[in-house]
């Protein structure tokens, strides 16, 4: 069921979004060659435990697309991994492409966001182009997230950007509604038909999350951890996400953070 939030409830969601955005900003600053994925996970645990009213959305989460309960506080997807990456004992290397996805409940409301970046200074130009395309696709999707438009307008805008850059789009995982729970209706695929689907209305809160792989749209689930989603051909992936609320005017980016390329591009 698709739920609409009141203006008061949207305002109550701001602390969760800000908290998630702040943590992602800090992780971007502190992550460098040699940083261990378990250090990232432990930092998030400490931040959550120190914040009154904050609860991880991931620990003990057990949906049908994973194998058993998730046991960590953040998703860390490296190189050919793109979604649901389970942190493990791995020290990041110069040139690794890292995607981090974080969802936290604060005082009963969820914030959900993801960023991708290249660790260190040895960046492959194709990795940078892939990351930038997910950002551009997110900007395009958010621009269509206005009252009176339809869900298909968001999906079509994301898919158009991806195809223009030569990427294929997987439709198995995408954006979603959220509020008191992390994953709710509606589902928002990263491609679709404009002018189709649910009509957007003020109070709808959604997470839009373009993710792409360099040379395929086929994915496999890691057999060892039962969670991490990887490209079927070993090519690298990137993932960018924001939580936003539909209003009578510009959408509110609830997970906006400092030095946020997406928000800067939107000019809201």
Automatic annotation (TrEMBL):
Pfam families: Peptidase_M24
Residues that coordinate or bind a divalent metal cation 1: 101, 112, 241
EC number(s) from the headed UniProt entry: 3.4.11.18
GO terms for cellular component: cytosol
Domain of life: Bacteria
Record keywords: Aminopeptidase, Hydrolase, Metal-binding, Protease
Signal sequence bounds: none
Class of this enzyme: hydrolase
GO biological process: proteolysis
GO molecular function, a single term: metalloaminopeptidase activity
Quaternary organization: Monomer.
Family that this chain belongs to: Belongs to the peptidase M24A family. Methionine aminopeptidase type 1 subfamily.
Protein's name in the database: Methionine aminopeptidase
Organism: Bifidobacterium subtile
């Amino acid at each position: 069921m698709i739920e609409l939030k009141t203006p008061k409830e949207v305002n109550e969601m701001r602390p969760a979004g800000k908290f998630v955005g702040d943590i992602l900003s800090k992780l971007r600053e502190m992550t460098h060659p040699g940083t261990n994925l378990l250090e990232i996970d432990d930092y998030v645990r400490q931040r959550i435990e120190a914040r009154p009213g904050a609860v991880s959305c991931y620990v003990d989460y057990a949906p049908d697309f994973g194998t058993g309960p998730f046991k960590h506080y953040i998703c860390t997807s490296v190189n050919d991994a793109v979604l649901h990456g389970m942190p493990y004992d791995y020290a990041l290397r110069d040139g690794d492409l890292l995607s981090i996805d974080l969802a936290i409940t604060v005082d009963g409301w969820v914030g959900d966001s993801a960023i991708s970046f290249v660790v260190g200074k040895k960046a492959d130009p194709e990795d940078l182009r892939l990351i930038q395309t997910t950002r551009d696709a997110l900007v395009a999707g958010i621009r269509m997230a206005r009252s009176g438009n339809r869900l298909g307008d968001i999906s079509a805008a994301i898919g158009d950007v991806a195809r223009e850059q030569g990427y294929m789009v997987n439709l198995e995982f995408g954006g979603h509604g959220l509020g008191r729970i992390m994953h709710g209706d509606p589902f928002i695929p990263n491609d679709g038909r404009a002018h189709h689907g649910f009509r957007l209305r003020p109070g709808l809160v959604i997470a839009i999350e373009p993710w792409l792989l360099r040379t395929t749209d086929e994915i496999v689930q890691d057999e060892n951890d039962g969670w991490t989603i990887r490209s079927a051909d070993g090519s690298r992936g990137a993932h960018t996400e924001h939580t936003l609320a539909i209003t009578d005017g510009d959408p509110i980016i609830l997970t906006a953070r400092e030095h946020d390329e997406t928000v800067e591009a939107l000019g809201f």
